[in-house]
Amino acid sequence: MQENTKSQIIANFKKHEGDTGSIEVQIALLTDRINKLNSHFKSNSKDYSSKRGLMLLVGRRRRFLSYIARHNPLKYKEILGRLGLRK
């Protein structure tokens, strides 16, 4: 992951100055990594070890999203809208 992209994502999703680990930031970073892996698989369809890593990332993001949906439904809908995950 490029540092410039990572710092831009953190800047867009942080809650306060110095925030790099809030759940919103983690979901956004995971989504970026998932999107990059999906584009990788368009040309490398038999990269099975990376597919396993992708499934682990998707599961981690799903757990974060379910946590935030339980504790703050308004923030959940906001994050889904900003990342364009669900319709």
Automatic annotation (TrEMBL):
Keywords: Ribonucleoprotein, Ribosomal protein, RNA-binding, rRNA-binding
Top-level lineage group: Bacteria
GO cellular component, one term: cytosolic small ribosomal subunit
Gene Ontology molecular function: any one: rRNA binding
Protein's GO biological process: translation
Function: Forms an intersubunit bridge (bridge B4) with the 23S rRNA of the 50S subunit in the ribosome.
Protein name: Small ribosomal subunit protein uS15
Organism: Candidatus Babela massiliensis
Gene (name only): rpsO
